[in-house]
Write a structure and sequence with these properties.
heterodimer, A: alpha+beta, Thrombin, subunit H, 2 domains, six-stranded antiparallel barrel, 6 helices, elongated, B: mainly alpha, 69% helix
Chain lengths: 289, 174
Amino acid sequence: MRNLILFLQRYVHFILFAVLELASLALLFSFNRLQSTAFFSATNSVAAAINRMWGDAAAYVALRDVNTRLEHENTLLKMQNDALRGLIDEQRHTPDATEKRIGEILGKYPVIPAKVTSNEQRADRFNHLVIDRGTDDGVADGMGVVGGGGVVGVISEASAHYSLVIPVTHKKSAISCRIRGSDWFGYLTWDGGSKLIAYLDEVPRYAVVERGMAIETSGYSDVFPPGIFVGNVLAVGSAPDGQSLRLTIHLGTDYSNLRNVTVVGNLHRSETDTLRNHTAFVEGVLEKN
Amino acid sequence: MRPEILTRIYWFIGLWLVQVVVLDHIALLGYAIPMPYVYFFCLLPTNTQRWVYVATGFCMGFLTDLFTGTPGVGAASCCATGLAAPYLLNLFAPSGYAFDEPFTPSVRTMEWWPFLRFVISLTLLNCFVYFLLEAFTLMYFGRLLLTTLLSAALSTGFIAAFEALRKNTRHKRL
C-alpha cells in the first residue's frame, strides 16, 4: 500500500496528464466535426478489424467441431455412395458361365444372398469374412458360402444379423472337392501364400489329372451341393508323404475383390444330422458294452 | 495570499485575455498565429510540482478554447506542453552551483540565449501539437511544419517582448 502511494505521488503528474489529455480529446471529438469524423472512422476500422480477427479466431477454434461434422457427413455420403454403386453394379451385372452353372445347381437349394461387410486378412493366416446376414435371415453354422467365382467358405458362427465365414484361404479350412468329370476327390487346403492359390491333397496317385482341369465340390458333405466350381488345376505334384497327389489349384474366387455372396442352405441337413447323431450314440453305447 | 502567487495569477489572466482578445485574430501570412500564453510556464519556479504545470496548462488551454472555437485543441496541446515544460527546463537551464537552488526561468536568471532556447522548445512543442490536432492528418505535413515554425517564431518573439518588458519593469523597480 505504501509502495502504491509512493508510486502515485511520484507519477501523479503523468496520471493527471493522462486524465486531462483524455478529457481534452473527448472535447475535441465531441465538438469538432472533422476530428470526430476522422476519429470514428478510424475506430470503426479498428473495431471492424478486431471483429474480423475475433471471427476468424472463433471460426478456427470451431474447426474441430466442423471437422467432426464433416467426417460424419462424409461417412454417411460414402455409405450412400457404396449402396448406390452396389445397386448399379447389380443392375449392370452379367453373369458368366461359372455363375450360370452355380445358379443352375443352387436352384434346387434354399439360398440367402448376402454382402461381405468385412474381409480380414490376418498375418497368422486365420482369415475371416463377415457377411450381413444372420440367424434372423435363416443363416446357420456350417452352411456353405459361394460367390460369382465359386466356393467362398463355410459359415463358422452366426449372430442375429451377421455371420462369420471361414474362407478357403483359412489355415484350418478343408473342403471336400473332386476333379470335374470324375469321382477322384481330395481336400482343399491353403498354405498361407497367395490368396489365389490353394492345394487339393489326398488325390489318389492313379488319378488322371491334367493342368487346366476344373475342380468342383464333391457333395460328400452337407455344406456344399456337388458341382460348385472351385478352381482350375495349375500344377500336379506329389504330396509330401509320397502316397498321394497334391494338386495346385488356381482358385476361382478372388478374395481381394469379393462383395456379393450367396449362403447355401441344405433342406435335408436336419435329417442327416439326426442320422449322424443316432449313429454316434449307438456306436458310443456299443463301445461301452 | 503571497504576492508572487498573485502576480502569477495576474499574468495568467493577462496572457489569456491577450490571446483570446487580440492575438487569436492575427494570422500572419495566413499561417502564423502567435500563441505566447505558454509564457506562463516561464513564471513558475523550478521547484513547482510537476502536476501544477499540467493542471495550469490544461486550464489555460481550456479557457482559450472557450473563446477560439476549437474545443479540446488548445487544452490538449497546452496540457502536453505543461508536462514537457519541467523536463525542457532541466535540459536548457544552465548548470552550476547557483542553479542548484530553485529559480524562476527568466533572462535575468538564465541569460537570453538559454532562456530563448527553452522558450523556443516550448512554443515549438505547443504549436506542433496544436496544429496537428487541428488538422488531424499528416497528409499536409509540409504545411503543418511551416505553420508550426512560423507560429512558434512569432510566439517566441512575443514572449521575448514580454520578457524584455518584465525585465525593464524590474529594473525600474530596483
